Sequence to fold (217 residues):
Amino acid sequence: MIEFKGLKISWLGHDSFVIRNRKTVAIDPFKIKRQQHPADVLLITHEHFDHCSLDDVKKVISNKTVIVATPACRAELSKAKISEIRTVKPGDKLRLDGVSIEAVPAYNLNKFREPGKVFHPKEDQKVGYIVEMDGVRVYHAGDTDAIPEMKGLKTDVALLPVSGTYVMTAEEAAEAAGLVMPSLAIPMHYGTIVGSERDAIKFKELAPCKVEILSPE
Fold:
């Protein structure tokens, strides 16, 4: 866990984070080790199994949690008794209990499932999120490459994938950090499916900003 300007940011492994002040926001729970304090808001970036995992969703919510997700997640989430699901696309903005949320684009440019077909197509409208709590803005990039839409995003903390294969490599994540220019970057999307801490270390060496490598909790 790291504290940044009053926000406590915990990495739960892979792309999973919890951000806390008076409110708790969880993002993309996957292979959670233990039951978590229920989130006020749960954000899910897209429908892939390592981001929209129903078993893990149940470990971070209560019947009061508001879930924000892309429309493709609704079928899976509807299997659980969830009080409220808000669906979003890139460009949408919400304010929930003092937490401001903006959905931003997340897609591949050069990570191919097969020739001509990327893992995360732009037209699928998968998202990342900018979460603002007490004036501090945290950008969770989702599964993405370094895309033009990152330029000009205003954020204090950037959570960036670094493992390659399906998302940015460490070198590309450093390029993304240069587009976003956060005060602090935290690498993610390694150590569970693809990538290792070596990718995080390489990112730290290359990034044009302060980088903290967190241990999964």
